[in-house]
Amino acid sequence: MSIQILIILFLTTTCILSSYATRGKFIVDDVDYTTFSTTLKPDLNLGKDDDKGEFPRKQLADCNRQIYKSSLVSNASQAANRRLNHTTGSWHANGPEFAGLVVHGGFTGGRAKLAIFAPGNVGDKQYSSALISVESGEGNDYNLIQVGWTVNPCLYKDNEIHFFLYAQGVNSQTCWDSHCSDFIPTAGDTALKFGDILAPSKVGQIDQNHLELSILKDDRSGWWFIIANGTIVGFWQGHYFSSLNTQATTVRFGGETYTPAGGDSSPPMGSGVFKPGWPSLTSYMEDVRINPNIGAGFAPENPQTIETRCYYVADVGNTKWFQGLGFFFGGKGGKDQDTCVY
């Protein structure tokens, strides 16, 4: 791409941002984002394939095809409705599994504070994530944005913990990290960037490493923003989505794993340990809120609790352990009752 085209793109985007800055403001966690022209500068280098071949588009397409497009998207509602099953007999992992909190209605986003743990061994065609997910629509109109941390060897070619973004937009198009169409990453040397490796908490330590995340929709502009640790990481201007351009009808908070069809054993979720009441050992989320564009948002009332075959949820809303609304989640995974249940 020539220098002239880059300059035109930068000036065009800056004008859009400056225009938006005069239209309104929203406040999240006492951070005033009124002056977008100075705080949000698009980084035109992010999301491009580099000479080293990191995150090439073929790799993204292969992982989407192998994992998400044929599994998570088509089976998301099934995964959310599966219940913990302690029946005897063997079970072969197949598809996504989720454990956490789900709220239904009409929302402009969600936010939470996620403890960062290393799940342990995750297979080449598996993933294990802790995430916030906003979703809306059905069929080709089904849209979602997921943000959090993940171990995904297929995508990142390692077993490290990565800060990630996954989205599905118009006509079921899917994307990862800063490779998303119409997603504008914002510049900043100290800010997290999608794909960055995160340091895990040490199991047994009192102070855990955390990731504070918000996905929020600004009512005035209709744009979706991703905020990590108080800094805007990037935003969409509404062209990528269809049903999410109106609102999110479902917000999920929790852990999600995937095992391909015929897989012998599902991967660990969270820390890979589930001992409620032990935040130094068990993965958790706290300060869970919805509609974070209204002040700092508010805790959902009576959220639905989802558990699946190998993964569990406990102590929802127990303020003895958590700041605000929180919960423990996770499990060691496995292939049958004997290997899943503690």
UniProtKB/TrEMBL annotation:
Keywords: Signal. InterPro entries: Glutamic_endopeptidase, Neprosin. Residues 86-341 form the Neprosin PEP catalytic domain. It holds the Pfam family Neprosin. Residues 1-21 form the signal peptide. Transmembrane segments: none annotated. PANTHER family: PROTEIN, PUTATIVE (DUF239)-RELATED, PROTEIN, PUTATIVE (DUF239)-RELATED-RELATED. This is Neprosin PEP catalytic domain-containing protein. It comes from Saponaria officinalis (Common soapwort). The lineage of its organism: Eukaryota, Viridiplantae, Streptophyta, Embryophyta, Tracheophyta.
